[in-house]
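so the lab meeting is tmrw and i was supposed to have these ready like two days ago... anyway. pasting both below. for each one the top line is the aa sequence and the line under it is the structure tokens. i havent really looked at them closely yet so no promises
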Amino acid sequence: MNNTDVNNEVTTGSLEEATLADFEVTCIYNAIVTNELAFAQLTEAIDLIKNSTKYKKQVKQETNRLAKYLKDFERRMDRVAGARIGYMSDVAQIVQEECQVNTDQMLEAMAREFEKVNHSYPEMMASIELARTYCELAVLSLKRRMQEMEKKGIKDFDNISWLDQTKLLNHSTTVCELLFEGGVVNLNKNLMCKTSLTMIERKLTDCKLIARAMNESDKLNPT
């Protein structure tokens, strides 16, 4: 929920069905894939904002701040991943493609809700709100993964804690609040929004899907 006028509840699924042998790796890739989903939507939203008449003064300042943080984190990701960045990107891309139909459905449904309150840029507002939603999902998912890891006796979180996107969520929330117009928009009451987000949450925590993506990426990135 990014402000009192746009209501959008986000939850996250469980990875506890994964076996202990591959549990930590699955958790890490769940975090990476969820982050990448947010990054892709943020990139699209930032482009739409920059091409609108809203891109001025504080909106411009905060959008540029959001874009800079996103680029800085992607550079950090490149440094940490090193030679494995191609492999990680392919894993994320494969899972994103599985989620794309649901992302498109959410964008369409959100845009219709913003049209109802006569927002001057309903597609742009839907795009940045979905990006903010994915950032919130990334933050909640990471917390859930760390809790699950701890339950399985894994105490060292250094391999996953750096993937936290709380700052990105805060930046995207600020941009959403600056761009919002009109009355109350309750996305929780939109069946397509709720159903699509639930499907995405399930796919992101589908151990079999993550394993398949990793296997396919192995083939695309032979060592």
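ok protien two:
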Amino acid sequence: MARMAATFRVSRPVARHLAALYDQAFSRAPGNQPQRLKDLLYDLGHNEWFMKSMYMGCLRHELPAFIRGIHTGESLAGAQWTAEQIEEYGQTYLRGLLDMILSDEVAKTRTKPYETLLRALDVDGYAVVDGRVVAKDAAAPLVAEQRAYLEGLYERLGLIEQALAKKHYQQSEADYVNGVPGNAISNARHFVEVVLRNTARRVSQLAPPVLSDRDIRSQKAVHSYLLSTGFLSEAEYELVRKLYGILSGKGGHPNMAKQDEARLTRHYALITCEFVLLRLDNLTAPKVLDPVRERFVCLLDQRRGSLAHPPSLPTPSA
């Protein structure tokens, strides 16, 4: 694991759960917690404005709103900074708050919000080692960007059921963070279903006949259709079919914790969906011709009766 890099950015879900943990560890804990909070901030070198804002937020039970506002910029809006400076300074404040709370012994006793924050970091590709946030791999800083990119790609392609796709995607993440791994896996499967059936809908508009409503609701029929049109190769078809089988499995893996199983299967599901959507994007609005698109176009022409045989794909060594 690599130490947290300067590129680490606190995502909105992490900021939300960070705010909830501060609320439990300071606003709702017994004793003079507002003063303890201010003393901790002083020891870390924070300025008077920030210490006072956190102190008053703690006294008034407004600490969660203030911390969430640091992420959105609302809590820093009165400062004479540009929008870019507000965003960067906000991230600096949030990273400092994150480091502080992860090493606070009182916070660790608030088991549920503390563990929820750890799972939120895990979703973004980070872990906590010795009270410090570390990247699990070099791709960790890209996870939050990938989340936004995947949602935006679905929308940009103009596929229907956008609200349903977003609901399952976000609910799978929320279930994982909230420690409900079975539901996290189920919603990941539902997201895969929405992506595949609406990809098949779009492909069928390019390659008549259009899939029937009955077939479009059958994942087996959808998978077979995407194979028959050449949208998926044999190997890709097997990958999708087996992934769907894993996501639909009952009882979990006997040698793996359910939470770990949810983390891995969600990861596989999201990567597969991104692959399918990027393939569709390339086929419907190509920038350059490639072997996959050539195969697909030729199969469409064949189905329309203009070609007898599609060309074979070149071998990897070609």
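from a quick look at the 2nd one: The mean pLDDT is 82. The chain has 15 helices and three strands. will dig more after coffe
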